[in-house]
Amino acid sequence: MKIAIMGAMPEEVAPILEKLQDYKTTQYANNKYYEATYKGVELVIAYSKIGKVFSTLTATTMIQHFGCDKLLFSGVAGAISPTLKVGDLIIATKLSQHDLDITAFGHPFGYVPEGAVFIESDKDLIALGKEVASEMGKTVQEGIIATGDQFVANEERKNWIGDTFKADALEMEGASVAVVCDALDVPFFILRAISDAADMDASFSFDEFLETSAVESAEFVMKMVDRIVE
Ligand code: SAH
Questions:
Q1: What CATH number does residue 27 fall under?
Q2: Which one from 88, 122, 171, 196 is the annotated catalytic residue?
Q3: How distant is the alpha carbon of residue 58 from its chain centre?
Q4: What is the DSSP letter of 61?
Q5: What pTM did the predictor assign?
Q6: Nearest atom of ligand 1 to the alpha carbon of 77
Q7: What domain range includes position 118?
Q8: How many domains is the chain partitioned into structurally?
């Protein structure tokens, strides 16, 4: 077993690297990959850089080049659902690309031929996530995550994404990682801690809460790893 742990930004993987302390750094495809052995299991950790293209490259690299056979993503997101507050965790049940639009041809938003509007996360990893949440005494919401190459800081756009995809949170990498894992048949789990409400105050909230929310998410994902390796 070889587990990929991915984030988009340095702050999202720093708490994981801190916990591991001993790891090997490999430079590949304009990025750094950190390899470690944790409780007898191999881990590959990386932050992709922001957005769908970089996260696609990193997820593909972790699977095809480093040989990972499970992928866990840890990071922060903007909330759509009013029940999600800063610091709360959301497990993606399925993910969609909110900025994928060939509706001019009569297709739904998020769809291209031979693709799918939604990609579903691995059911076993979701079930494990729920067990970990109850062990930790944490309330973790499950829901739909919408991904696009936009930092959403606008109530109107946020509400449109919420209405169109029934999404509960939005970010910039989850759905692209999901597409890669689905195509390569690798079970994946996408966890996000809320950093902002994707409204006009989003950039300020993001800057204030990025670090603490990233730690919330990383700690949860490491608890998942503990359960996977035991
Ligand atoms: N602070 C960064 C930019 C962050 S972009 C800089 O200045 O360099 C936002 C990142 O957090 C993305 O990786 C995305 O996945 C997530 N995210 C958090 N809130 C978001 C929001 N409201 N809209 C889109 N992505 C969001």
A1: 3.40.50.1580
A2: 196
A3: 12
A4: I
A5: 0.98
A6: 18
A7: 2-229
A8: 1
Ligand 1 centroid to residue 106 C-alpha, Å: 31
Query: Among 36, 42, 27, 139, which Cα is nearest to 91's?
Result: 139
The CA 211 to ligand 1 mean position distance, Å, reads 12
Helix (H) or strand (E) holding 178: helix 174-183
Mean pLDDT by 10 residues, the chain (230 residues): 98 97 96 97 98 98 98 98 98 98 98 98 98 95 98 98 98 99 98 98 98 98 96
Count how many residues are written for the chain.
230
Paired tokens of 215: 């730690």
Written as six digits, the tokens of 208 are 């204030």
pLDDT tens track for 63-72: 999 999 999 9
Q: In sequence order, which residues have a C-beta less than 8 Å from that of residue 33 and are 6 or more positions away?
A: 25, 26, 27, 44, 45, 46, 61, 62, 66
**Is residue 178 a contact partner of residue 60, using CB atoms and an 8 Å limit?**
no
Half-sphere exposure of 29 (CA within 13 A, CB side): 18
- For residue 124, what are the contacts with CB-CB under 8 A and spacing of at least 6? 187
Q: pLDDT tens across 59-99, in order?
A: 999 999 999 999 999 999 999 999 999 999 999 999 999 99
| Long-range CB pairs of 133-140, under 8 A, 24+ apart, other chains included | 133/89, 133/220, 135/223, 136/220, 136/223, 138/89, 138/220, 139/88, 140/89, 140/90, 140/91, 140/220
CB 142 within 8 A of CB 90: yes
Is there an atom of ligand 1 within 6 Å of 170 CB? yes
Whether residue 51 contacts residue 170, with contact meaning beta carbons closer than 8 Å, is answered with no
